[in-house]
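Re-run with default settings, no changes from the original entry. Doing this only to confirm the output is reproducible before filing.
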Amino acid sequence: MSQLALKERINCYNPVMDSIHLQDNILSNSDIHPIFYTGDSLIVMKQILSKSIDCCMTSPPYWGQRCYENGGIGLEKKSDDFVENLLNVIKEIHRVLKDTGSFWLNIGDTYKNKSLQGIPWRVAIKMMDEQGWIMRNDIIWNKHKGAMDSSSDKLRNIHEMIFHFVKSNDYYYNDEAIRLNPQTTIIRKGAIVSSSGVCGIRYKRQIELSTSLSKDEKEMAMQDLQQVLKRVECGEIPDFRMIIRNQQRATHSNSERVSGRAKELNEKGYYFLFYSKNGALPTDVWEILPEDTQNREKHYAVYPEDLCKIPILSTCPRNGIVLDPFCGSGTTNKVAYSLQRRSIGIDISEEYINIAKQRVSQLHLNLL
């Protein structure tokens, strides 16, 4: 889209409508019911104050995959035009997002003339290079199943990308809200065994037989290992790993200039890695099945509710606001509501906005 066309698109919007009260409706209201707006996301977002949104999660329309009601992004003839139009929306997301906020972007790819277009990474790289976004994670969403594919000259596609972007390094992140339940230690043949089976016997043997540790280093390593095992026994830590000079592969760079671990390994001959007693953080590969579209009156996207839980729990505080500028059937907003967060949903399709409202209303009735 040309800058002139973009300017005309924005100028044609008459703010004398409900959306001009968007800030009053959402910012000053403790009610967690989502607020939905029908319209072009680029235009409606102009009514949102700068730096007022805590978390944005969205899944834009695929390029060239479907015919969307009322037009909108995804119908461009060229992938470059799709990327440019999407970046215009993302630039507006950057404006409304707080400096402590996060943006989670789920975006699929498309083939054209048997060539995969690489759209997710085209968008992501331009976001970093041209708009100043910081990428914290590139997540693979393994859907386990994909669309029907009759191709016999390539592998089936069953994954999509999810990018976690922030505006600054001082962003809100509640890791405790998303940690997986930790396993507990056990007693096996009189020995304390960590949640993953570490009991210290192997480490003791490696210390005793080491030709890289001095006598003093061995004594200190044994003493520290005993202290760590006591911490495991009393439940202070659920698990640990010991890195011994020339025994285990160092988990960081060998250069002392860039790694404090390397310096510790060189000076002491060993170091410990401790696991959180609150559990481990999720990985950057998410095994989540798409939503089942059977038994529905209307077909809508496969964007599942579980996809939204980690982003909202980890990067939107309890009193925060979640935004989805391509909300479709309102999955992001429904999850935000179930997690006691306020939210704004925008979509160009009035039909989808009505579906979103119905889904949230049904959830509200189920929670009563």
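The CA atoms of residues 308 and 332 lie 6 Å apart. Residues 215-233 form the longest helix (19 residues).
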